[in-house]
Design brief:
This protein has four helices and eleven strands; from the N terminus they run βββαβαβββαββββα. It is an alpha/beta fold. Strand 7 (128-136), helix 3 and strand 8 form a beta-alpha-beta unit. The chain starts with 6 loop residues before the first strand and ends with a helix. Bound molecules: hypoxanthine and magnesium ion. The site of magnesium ion has 3 residues, from loops. This is Hypoxanthine phosphoribosyltransferase. It catalyses: IMP + diphosphate = hypoxanthine + 5-phospho-alpha-D-ribose 1-diphosphate.
Length: 217
């Protein structure tokens, strides 16, 4: 599989000035830099879609979208998988979709516990599961989720995470498919939130002190 193949955003990458890209007026003073513009997110997802279809050898996929943060990545990834499938002369991979809701963050800190909401109704038994997640930070959430999923006896579980935070892993966990490896900074946008704000921002950005204060709970 394609773990080694991701875009690395280095620690000394400054990012792009928010004034040189389009961000909503209501967040203009709350962001430091854009670190991954929306267009680059889309380009990277297209390649992940291609890798996933190639690795599936025509077997059906059950995508499990991790709400809420994973909804944009899931939607764009499945759209692009559908395109790859349409262009495939043979070996296309049929896709089913399940949703799981998990909550583990308060302010910018992991609460240390993971709550899986409505996991029991998941139809994953004997399926080739593709977990679709926005970000892997400590790896604890994913480990817990994988334990739960495994207990439902899937045929196979693969994980696609748009982001992987460098240096914060407590578990050494690495996803099968990763969009970008990023510095250890709190990021928002493209459905990633800070206390439910910033999901309505298309670029992935680093939040500033003003934003942290303004939207803290
Ligand atoms: N941003 C948003 N949600 C998160 C992050 C982050 O940096 N890390 C873990 N969940
Ligand atoms: Mg969140």
């Amino acid at each position: 599989m394609s773990t080694a193949n991701f875009i690395k955003i280095s620690d000394d990458f400054e990012g792009y000035d928010t004034a040189s890209l389009s961000v909503p007026y209501h967040y203009e003073n709350d962001l430091d830099k854009v670190i991954i513009p929306y267009g680059l997110i889309q380009d990277r997802i297209e390649k992940i879609a291609k890798d996933i279809v190639l690795d599936s050898f025509g077997e059906p996929i059950t995508a499990v979208c991790i709400l809420k943060g994973g909804y944009k990545f899931c939607s764009d990834l499945l759209d692009k998988i559908n395109v790859v499938n349409r262009l495939q002369a043979k070996g296309s991979a049929p896709v089913k979709l399940e949703f799981v809701r998990i909550k583990s963050y308060v302010n910018e800190k992991s609460s240390g516990t993971v709550e899986i909401i409505d996991g029991a109704s998941l139809d994953v038994k004997d399926k080739n599961v593709l977990v679709i997640e926005d970000i892997i930070d400590t790896g604890r959430t994913m480990k817990k989720l994988l334990n739960t999923l495994t207990s439902y006896n899937p045929k196979q579980v693969r994980v696609a995470s748009l982001l992987l935070k460098r240096g914060t892993s407590l578990t050494g966990y690495k996803p099968d498919y990763c969009g970008f490896e990023i510095p250890d900074k709190f990021v928002v946008g493209y459905a990633l939130d800070y206390n439910e704000y910033f999901r309505d921002l298309n670029h992935i950005c680093v939040i500033n002190e003003n934003g942290i204060k303004k939207y803290s709970v």
